[in-house]
Design goal:
By secondary structure, this protein is mainly α. The protein has two helices and no strands.
Length: about 55
């Protein structure tokens, strides 16, 4: 949830960033999205493993 809040606050600023640092800022915002995706993936894998052990 924290990454969503940070991304929501920082993403609109992208349109006001000077062109010379535009790509660096875009990569920074992308890292936040990747962090969210990694966290959700880890949680889903962990939950799936727990379900697998319960069924056996």
């Amino acid at each position: 949830m924290g990454t969503a809040i940070v991304w929501t606050v920082l993403a609109p600023i992208f349109f006001f960033v000077p062109t010379n640092i535009d790509s660096a800022y875009e990569r920074f915002i992308s890292l936040i999205a990747i962090a969210w995706l990694a966290a959700m993936s880890w949680l889903l894998i962990r939950r799936g493993k727990r379900q697998l052990f319960i069924r056996q």
